[in-house]
Amino acid sequence: MKTLVGAGSSSPRLPSCSLRLLQPSKAPISLPRCQGGSGNETSGGKSDLSIGSPVVVVEAPPTLKTATAMSSLRINSGLVKQGDVGRIIARKPKDVWAVRLAIGTYLIDGKYFKPLDVDE
């Protein structure tokens, strides 16, 4: 078996290719930036939503995904119905929100609910 330890040295020698990976790059990395408006066009008017905002379900989603560490995806067999009221717990990517309902917390797409007006 070939060893990387030098003669009389107690520290291991690294191959030269590893040394190049450990040295910081001198050229800055340019990352692409998202172009476009403020993002309100794609949110469907949900810019007034924040954590803790009350929402009402306007259309029952066909599938439900639980907002737990080990989430599960299941068919909505009448668990979440139109008119159910919940509260926003967290914002997820692509207009998906964690909504706390009476029966549990689920990840629901923004098209299935709207902000609850207290005047209604």
UniProtKB/TrEMBL annotation:
Coiled coil: none annotated. InterPro entries: CRR42-like. Residues 28-50 are annotated as: Disordered. It comes from the Eukaryota. One of its GO terms (biological process) is NADH dehydrogenase complex (plastoquinone) assembly. This is Chlororespiratory reduction 42. It comes from Ensete ventricosum.
